[in-house]
Each structure stands twice: as structure tokens, then as C-alpha cells.
Specification:
Helix content: 10-25%
Structural class: alpha+beta
Shape: elongated
Number of domains: 2
Number of helices: 6
Number of strands: 15
Distance between the termini: 41 Å
Radius of gyration: 28 Å
Strand content: 35-45%
Order of helices and strands: HEHEEHEHEEEHEEEEEEEHE
């Protein structure tokens, strides 16, 4: 089959066989089109590349010296993607020892309203924490879901309404779920670059049927002229929202491979996200939303 393909390639290219060398290259890990673009960088102006999707191979036609360079580069780059284990811990911290969040911001502020805490800065009084772990390939996003939230205050509801997840003045009980997309890549010298994008999604109630309304009685009135009060609960609103990226709270940083670092939500969208995720816990005292990150190979 390959010999036939090579012969057809030479015939269609119009290049004399005495001039050109033609070889087939198997591509194992790279997308075929990406591999073809890599090969083209090493060929002469007269060189040609044909992609054979069904066999995941490339047909290359050029002088032997150029083909040799192209093969060497493709062999170097056509490797399985590096794998990472990402550990993410969400903590509800009531205080920070040694230095304030404001000081941390001035030293190592990050995009999206986050601050990286100084190395050795001790966290204390963690009222709750949740840990998540996933395995990701280099430069490929992994998805973490942190769970369901149903109760949030007026300020958080206003923030969510800007994303179209809930209506600001509605009393409808609309639970949402949240999470993070995480992407990691090697940054050299034992370092890994990590990017985090939070997401939110409105979810329905599986226990109730589609488009079903439930009237919840709020008690009978004594005065006959005043009708009884009810709360109308729509289990499945007509609008269907998918996952929405909170790009304003996205952040990225470079951290040592195998060592945990902490980032705190201090302002802007990150602070609003923190209020949402901490809303499921007690609001006693001053609280800080902190994420611990650790990436290992």
C-alpha cells in the first residue's frame, strides 16, 4: 500500500524521480496536520508533504538531506504528552499569621484578583477544606467540579446575575455547581506553569418533572380578606445554561514541581468567587478563600 502511495505521489507531483527522494513517516502522538507543519519547516522550497489521515502517515518528497532533517525534528517532537498530577485544596481560613493579605498582594499579586502567599507563611484556623486531584496531559485542560451550592446572599446573587446564571431579584431556588479548569506545562528548571479558570453552571432538580411548578404554602392568614401566601418554585426553567467560564477570575502562575503553594482570593472576581464558594459554610468571623496547589509528575 505504501509503495503504491509513494508511486502515485511522485506521479502527481510532477517531480522527476531522479531529483527527489520520497519517504513515508509514521506519526504517533502529534495531530497529523501539526506534524506536517513541523516537517515543512525543514524542507526546501520545492519540498512537498501529503497527509494520509487513514494511516496517520506523511508522504514527504524532497532531496534526501532535507528529508533527513525533517525526520530528525519530527522524531524529537512526536513524543507522548507529559503527564501531571494536580492537587487542589480549597480552604476556608479565618485568619493569616505573620503578614496580612494586603502585604501579600503588594509582594506577589496575580491576575484575576488573586495573590500568591509568601513561602513559609503559615495559615491557621482553617474551618473547612476540600481536596481534589486529577491527572492531566501537558497543555490539555483538566476539569474539577467542587460541588453544588444552593444558598447565597444578595451580593453574590447580584454577581451571579451578571453571568446570567440567576436573576438578581428572583426568589426562585436555583442551585448551581462550580469548578475549575486546570492546565499545566513544564516551564524548565523544575518548574511548572499552571493556569486556572473557574466555571459556574446552573443545575436543575432531578427529583421533579420537566416544567413542573410546586406551590409551597407559607402559612394561612387569619384575616379572610387576605389570601394565603405561597412560594412558586419552578424546578426546570425554560432557559438552559451550560458551563460559563469566569474569565475575570482566571489566573496563572509558575510554581516548583512537587511543592505546594497557596493563593488567596483578595479582590475583583476572585473575591466574589470566594464568597460564593464559602457561602455554604458558616460566616462567623473574618474569613479568607485560599487555594493550595501542588503539581507533581
Amino acid at each position: 500500500m505504501r509503495k503504491l502511495l509513494v508511486s502515485l505521489f511522485l506521479l502527481c507531483s510532477g517531480v522527476p524521480a531522479s531529483y527527489a527522494a520520497t519517504e513515508t513517516l509514521e506519526v504517533y502522538f502529534l495531530p497529523l496536520h501539526e506534524a506536517a507543519e513541523v516537517v515543512k519547516t525543514e524542507l526546501s522550497n520545492a519540498g512537498k508533504v501529503v497527509e494520509i489521515d487513514s494511516l496517520h502517515i506523511l508522504l514527504i518528497d524532497d532531496k534526501a538531506a532535507y528529508i533527513k532533517k525533517a525526520k530528525a525534528l519530527l522524531k524529537q517532537l512526536d513524543q507522548p504528552a507529559k503527564q501531571f498530577t494536580v492537587q487542589l485544596t480549597i480552604e476556608d481560613i479565618s485568619s493569616l499569621e505573620e503578614s496580612s493579605i494586603a502585604g501579600a498582594v503588594s509582594m506577589s499579586a496575580l491576575s484575576g484578583g488573586w495573590a500568591r502567599l509568601a513561602v513559609g507563611q503559615q495559615l491557621q484556623h482553617a474551618s473547612s477544606h476540600s481536596s481534589y486531584q486529577l491527572r492531566v496531559s501537558a497543555n490539555q485542560p483538566g476539569r474539577i467540579a467542587t460541588g453544588r451550592i444552593q444558598q447565597f446572599n444578595r451580593e453574590t446573587r447580584r454577581w451571579l446575575s451578571a453571568y446570567g446564571v440567576v436573576e438578581e431579584h428572583s426568589i426562585t431556588l436555583l442551585p448551581i455547581t462550580t469548578g475549575f479548569y486546570v492546565r499545566a506545562r513544564l516551564a524548565g528548571n523544575g518548574l511548572v506553569h499552571i493556569r486556572i479558570i473557574p466555571w459556574i453552571k446552573r443545575i436543575g432538580q432531578a427529583s421533579l418533572g420537566d416544567n413542573q411548578d410546586v406551590l409551597i404554602g407559607l402559612g394561612s392568614n387569619v384575616t379572610p380578606a387576605i389570601p394565603d401566601s405561597y412560594l412558586r418554585y419552578n424546578s426546570n426553567p425554560k432557559k438552559n445554561h451550560g458551563e460559563i467560564n469566569i474569565d475575570g477570575a482566571a489566573t496563572e502562575l509558575t510554581i516548583p514541581l512537587g511543592k505546594e503553594v497557596s493563593i488567596a482570593a483578595v479582590n475583583h472576581e476572585a473575591e466574589q468567587l470566594g464568597k460564593l464558594l464559602l457561602g455554604r459554610y458558616s460566616k462567623v468571623g473574618k474569613r479568607q478563600f485560599v487555594i493550595g496547589l501542588k503539581v507533581s509528575d
